[in-house]
Amino acid sequence: MSRPWIFVSPANRGIGAALTRHLLRTTTLPIVATSRLTSPSETKKALLADLSLPPSLTSSSSSGHTDRLTVLPLDVTSEPSIERASDAAAALFPPDRGQWHMHLGFALPGVLTPERSPRQVEYDAALETLKVNTLGPLMLMKWFADRFLPQKGAELLLPSPPPSSSSASPPAPLSLPPHATWTTLSARLSSIADNTLGGWYSYRASKAGVNQLTKTLDLHLARRQRHAMALAYHPGTVQTDFTRDFWTHVPEAQLFGVDYAVERLVDVVVAQAGLESHRGRCWDWKGEEVPP
């Protein structure tokens, strides 16, 4: 029986950091997170700081959640960096022995340089957008999704969620789906059919590429594996450094706190997404499909 673990990249800030903390509080699974901007030790310390855990996940030594979180250095614009992180994960969870598999994988890198017209597009900035937003997830697919998602014929061992806490502070325990899921962060601006305003050339192109890569990976998984799928996800406009310059342009009801955004992500991707009903497509925070 193959035991599950979780992958989140990057996790040093924004949605990735909040998601890692949420998963530490709602599962008992080992988690591999990555960081580029800060050292792994600093990132791990920040992720564990003031973490409110249900009694079922708290030990007298408080080592349970500390030991099951591993933070690795990873730069999505450097394939050697991604390969080294993949090898480190393989040392922790050897996929070739059939004892471990990645059950939830989250590829979350993103940069944004808005351009209102073609003349505002700068080559180097556009290239960086494509490297981070499109090639970064592709390399994560190569070195993590293809390497660690369960192989065809694998029998998956899924632990029961931790017991609910009487405290109102920790979120509800998370029940894992019977299939593994690889999620890549996309955006509604990826949609060609929904593009009625124009602008944001490089960002739109990079996220449209994410959706195409997600579909292609999912077809590969469907042929090779019985218990795995890939999908893309649009979280809405979330109050992180990534979107700070645009907060004043978004209606308050459509501007989400990071904790709420993570709750919606987990609900749509983990709780709602079915193997046949959701695979290979892009979904938003409401659980609705983003048209291609």
TrEMBL record:
InterPro entries: Fungal_SecMetab_SDRs, NAD(P)-bd_dom_sf, SDR_fam
Similarity remark: Belongs to the short-chain dehydrogenases/reductases (SDR) family.
Name of protein: Uncharacterized protein
Source organism (scientific name): Apiospora aurea
Organism lineage: Eukaryota, Fungi, Dikarya, Ascomycota, Pezizomycotina
